[in-house]
Amino acid sequence: MSDFPGELVADATLDDAYTKPRGWRHGATWTYLIMLAASAVALVVSFVLSAETLKLARNPGQKLSCDVNAVMSCSTVAESWQAEIVRFAGLSFPNAFFGIAAESVFVTIAVIGLTKVAVPRWFALCTWLGGLAALAYSYWLTSQSLFVINALCPWCLCLMFSTTVQFMALSHATAVVQEIPAKGAGVRTYYRLNYDLMVDAVWIVALIVIILVKDGPMLFS
Fold first, then answer.
1. Largest CB tally within 10 Å, which of 12, 65, 108, 151?
2. Which is nearest to 31 in space by CA: 200, 185, 159, 206?
3. pTM to 2 decimal places
4. What contacts 24+ positions apart, CB below 8 Å, involve 48-52?
5. Chunked in runs of 10, what are the mean pLDDT values of the chain (221 residues)?
């Protein structure tokens, strides 16, 4: 490292160029394409859940197509208070309706990312925070199904996994494409060395293991 300011700037530029991930996997096309696919799946599942909710509302007590057994039961989850936590003026609103709204936004953002249109940094940061909020909400609902309701909804599980992949892709794009945080050399090195692939794989496997350990024998009974 030199004592001259000009050379300090040059060194910093070289360091940033070294730590910045390169290759197709770290480009806007790939990261936002994965996000788009995951968001589209989550959007479709939200529509299905909304339809199932309306069907159950019209025919209380009726079994749904995804009622497999006592544990794998959509109707049991749909009839719990956790399925409609937003209440206003005596009315309750199914979570799936909010899923449609949220995932429509994420699909739109993914399309914007694919077009490589520059967005303000505050917008990119708010998008990531929104993705984090969606993930936390999905995990809370899954934990309620596993440990409180003691029933699982196949569509809800699909939504949880697609939201997880969506957040993984969104985090990748935020750090590498949008370069947030601006001085996050360590974060970009994490992606450049492909540590994210190992962490994401362990993450998905851990979710599957938790579900199987809790309800594995009952899922296939």
1. 151
2. 200
3. 0.86
4. 48/155, 49/94, 49/95, 49/96, 49/99, 49/153, 49/155, 49/156, 49/159, 50/94, 50/96, 50/97, 50/99, 50/100, 52/78, 52/96, 52/155
5. 44 54 89 97 93 79 74 81 72 82 96 93 96 96 90 90 97 94 86 94 96 78 62
Looking at CATH, the fold of the domain delimited by 21-216 is given as de novo design (two linked rop proteins) (1.20.1440)
User: What separation in angstroms does the CA of 52 have from each of 19, 32, 90?
Assistant: 48, 30, 22
Distance set, CA 90 to CA 77, 87, 93, 98 (Å) = 21, 7, 10, 18
Phi, psi of 60 (to 5 degrees): -55, 135
217: tokens are 């024998």
Q: Structure tokens of 80?
A: 């719990």
Tokens standing for 74? 């959509």
How many helices (H) and strands (E) the chain has is answered by 8, 2
**Positive or negative: CA dihedral 4, 9, 14, 18:** positive
Residue 109, classed as helix, strand or coil, is: helix
Q: What are the sequence ranges of the domains in the chain?
A: 21-216
Distance CA 216, CA 221 (A): 9
